[in-house]
Design a protein that fits this description.
five-stranded parallel beta sheet, two-stranded antiparallel ribbon, globular, 5 helices, alpha/beta, Rossmann fold
Length: 134
């Protein structure tokens, strides 16, 4: 099975670096990071180019936020795991079809469990199609 393509979207370079290291160390060959993006505008282009299976998405970013980005994809075929330092957005993230919601700093065990659930879900159900009008 091909590894799942992942894009990391966060304006904090240290967060992107640590998340990528954790994913590489603990997710075997099941996940491959295809891009790391520090701003919302570049994220749009990256998602269109790489067609990821999963994005890790920060919420509060310069020139927009994670929700603004998702609104540009009214129908999407990728899962989203929000990563943020703010718990106040968790309910809103659910309305945007979040696969999960992780708080910074990311706990390695929590991340491993979420990735295991993601892989199992994809193997059982295939590619998602999120359409908020349904």
């Amino acid at each position: 099975m091909e590894p799942f393509k992942v894009i990391l979207i966060d304006d904090e370079p240290d967060s992107i670096i640590s998340l990528e290291i954790i994913l590489q160390e603990f997710c075997d060959d099941s996940i491959t990071v295809v891009d790391k993006v520090p701003v919302i505008d570049q994220a749009w282009d990256s998602i269109k180019k790489h067609k990821p299976d999963l994005i890790f998405l920060d919420i509060d970013m310069p020139r927009g936020n994670g929700f603004d980005l998702l609104e540009r994809f009214p129908i999407r075929k990728f899962d989203v795991i929000f990563i943020t330092a703010y718990g106040r957005y968790e309910e809103k993230a659910k309305t945007y079809g979040a696969f999960d919601y992780l708080m910074k700093p990311i706990d390695i065990e929590d991340l491993k469990q979420v990735i295991d659930r993601f892989i199992t879900h994809r193997k059982m159900h295939g590619t998602p199609t999120f359409n908020p009008t349904c």
